[in-house]
Amino acid sequence: GAVVSQHPSRVICKSGTSVKIECRSLDFQATTMFWYRQFPKKSLMLMATSNEGSKATYEQGVEKDKFLINHASLTLSTLTVTSAHPEDSSFYICSARGQGVVYEQYFGPGTRLTVT
Amino acid sequence: SQQGEEDPQALSIQEGENATMNCSYKTSINNLQWYRQNSGRGLVHLILIRSNEREKHSGRLRVTLDTSKKSSSLLITASRAADTASYFCAGGVYDKVIFGPGTSLSVIP
Q1: pLDDT in tens, chain A (116 residues)
Q2: A-proximal residues of B, 44-73, CB under 8 Å
Q3: Residue A21 contacts by C-beta under 8 Å, 6 or more apart in sequence?
Q4: Chain B residues with beta carbon closer than 8 angstroms to that of A93
Q5: Could A43 and B2 be called an inter-chain contact, meaning their C-beta atoms sit closer than 8 Å?
Q6: For the segment B66-77, what is each residue's pLDDT rounded down to a tens digit?
Q7: A98 touches chain B (CB under 8 A)
Q8: Which of B40, B10, B35 is nearest to A9 (CA)?
Q9: Predicted local confidence at residue B1, as pLDDT
Q10: CA-CA distance, B80 to B17, in Å (whole number)?
Q11: Which chain A residues touch B49 with a CB distance below 8 Å?
Q12: CA torsion, points B100, B39, B82, A46, in degrees to nearest 10?
């Protein structure tokens, strides 16, 4: 199946700093990428949908100035957590969908963010 | 917002037994998908059933979908210790996938 990678897999940062997480589709062109957040022992919450070359669409309650999403190419989307706080600590997972495949999403392995 | 509600939230069975997890959803969907997640890891797509399908099989997995009741079930037959994981249903609505809270399955050797 299609492969999606995330980098870094784990990151620890100090409160007030910004952290960038990359999501890459390795063997296909991803016209749409999705970013999810998962708290311990909880389900995935969709944060935003990003389409290549356009602004991301954020779900209700997600601060777009806090979670900056850029989908600059068909293989790369980035999520930047700005001015991170301990409550931003979470597991962030991206998924990618290829051209013409409406229902199939391929998930990355996730990034564990810890803000101290 | 979450689309599905899983039942039970936690399930513990002996190896070799069958495990059944149920999912109910609130809004209309194009498809329903089941995913597996090992602790602290990413998601693995298990199976997708479209809204016009009623049952689907994949290996030891059997999924049913009842759109009139807005519910789905995932059956894992002859469970193995390696099946221990969290299982999520997710409703596909146009190009989005909205996840339910998940069922934590423990298979005891």
Answers
A1: 678 999 999 999 999 999 999 999 998 888 889 999 998 888 899 999 998 888 899 999 999 999 999 988 999 999 999 999 999 999 999 999 876 655 678 889 999 999 99
A2: 44-45, 48, 50
A3: A6, A7, A8, A11, A78, A79, A80, A81, A92, A94, A111, A113
A4: 42-43
A5: yes
A6: 999 999 999 999
A7: no
A8: B40
A9: 44
A10: 8
A11: none
A12: 30
Q: In what order do the strands lie in the sheet with A19-25?
A: A4-7, A19-25, A76-81, A67-73
Contact with chain B for residue A7, Cβ under 8 A = no
Size of chain B in residues = 109
Q: Which two tokens stand for residue A35?
A: 């970013």
Q: Among A20, A33, A35, A13, which Cα is nearest to A89's?
A: A13
What's the rounded Cα separation, in Å, for the pair A28 and B71? 33
For chain B, percent of residues with pLDDT exceeding 70: 95
Nearest Cα of chain B lies from the Cα of A57 at a distance, in angstroms, of 11
Alpha carbon of residue A23 to chain centroid: 6
Q: Which bin fits A41, alpha (ψ -120 to 50), beta or left (φ > 0)? A: left
